[in-house]
Specification:
about 325 residues; alpha/beta; D-Maltodextrin-Binding Protein, domain 2; 10 strands; ten-stranded mixed beta sheet
């Protein structure tokens, strides 16, 4: 009897393993939900909708965009963190939701341990700009005026705690100047006031400023990225201007809930990188001034951890709190 039971147990184990492998190999068997933690029409949402089409082609399965905006993106991000780690819910993670928010929201209901990071998708700088008719024409001129007249100048951003706001605060600290911050509920509102002459300068992501620069309505004077941006080739970086410690970039990535099978993470990684390299995605991102990334899961995980530390320091130095 013992021999019979042992044989049956061995047989059962032998059947379970192939069934488990078959389940993994079958992924994805149903549509995948792509969580966008911002409202429809936002820059992240616009990217996600184009990316989802290319990703669906790579996976040979539907990818459905789900919008959950609110609290700086933390509501949708928290919902994804609590989702079943079965490979059918994935997040467009970003510098705000998965780095800056940890410093801004003390009661945040998720942490970096709640995610299995898949790949870094894109990076892009913030751009400091003035109105086309402004007498200010260089960062040196701005710094010189700010040193002689503290708080005489002001700058607008997409909101307190946004990547643009914190990047400019890092610049202020590096240059040892005082320039007033004027927060807006979205960078487009700041840009409208800049063109109307209500504020002295503004900072925002490169894709938001690009049409206005090309239309001759704004003058870009510096980019916060690691290198000059291809769509702003004549605009110097902060590092070139002597403020390398203020270098900062916005980014978007792809992240599963923690506990997602590593095989699924790797398959999604390959599919996401394939989607990034498709002509409709790749060319569009470059045209909008993004850098197309596509890292390994390990590289992206290390990148996020460094970003959390960097932005925590920036938030602490600025004294900003979540609104």
């Amino acid at each position: 009897m013992k021999k019979i039971l042992l044989s049956l147990s061995t047989l059962a184990l032998g059947l379970i393993a192939p069934l488990s492998m078959a389940a993994e190999q079958a992924w994805p068997e149903k549509p995948i939900k792509l969580m966008v933690p911002y409202p429809a029409g936002s820059a992240t949402d616009t990217f996600a909708r184009v990316f989802s089409i290319a990703l669906a082609k790579e996976l040979q399965q539907s990818v459905i965009v789900i919008n959950r905006g609110g609290a700086g993106g933390s509501l949708g991000t928290a919902e994804l963190a609590r989702a079943k780690p079965d490979g059918y819910s994935v997040l467009i993670s970003g510098v705000g939701t998965n780095a800056i928010n940890y410093a801004l929201y003390k009661d945040l209901s998720y942490s970096d341990k709640d995610f299995a990071h898949v790949t870094l998708l894109t990076t892009g700088p913030n751009v400091i700009a003035v109105a086309a008719q402004s007498p200010l024409s260089s960062l040196k001129g701005i710094v010189d005026k700010a040193k002689t007249s503290p708080n005489a100048l002001n700058f607008g951003s997409g909101g307190s705690g946004s990547s643009g706001h914190l990047a400019f605060e890092a610049l202020k600290a590096a240059a040892d100047v005082e320039i007033l911050h004027v927060p807006y509920k979205g960078v487009n509102l700041a840009l409208n006031d800049l063109m109307a002459g209500h504020i002295d300068m503004a900072i925002g992501n490169q894709n938001a400023l690009l049409p206005l620069v090309e239309g001759g309505k704004l003058k870009p004077i510096a980019v916060t990225g690691r290198a000059r941006n291809p769509v702003f080739p004549s605009v110097p970086t902060l590092a070139e201007l002597g403020y390398g410690e203020a270098t900062a970039e916005s980014w978007m990535g792809l992240s599963f809930p923690a506990g997602t099978d590593t095989e699924i993470v790797e398959r999604m990684n390959k599919a996401a990188i394939g989607a990034l390299q498709s002509s409709d995605i790749h060319d569009r991102l470059l045209k909008d001034g993004y850098t197309v990334e596509g890292t390994t899961s390990t590289e992206f995980t290390a990148f996020v951890r460094k970003e959390i530390i960097k932005w925590a320091k920036a938030a602490d130095a600025s004294g900003v709190q979540a609104e």
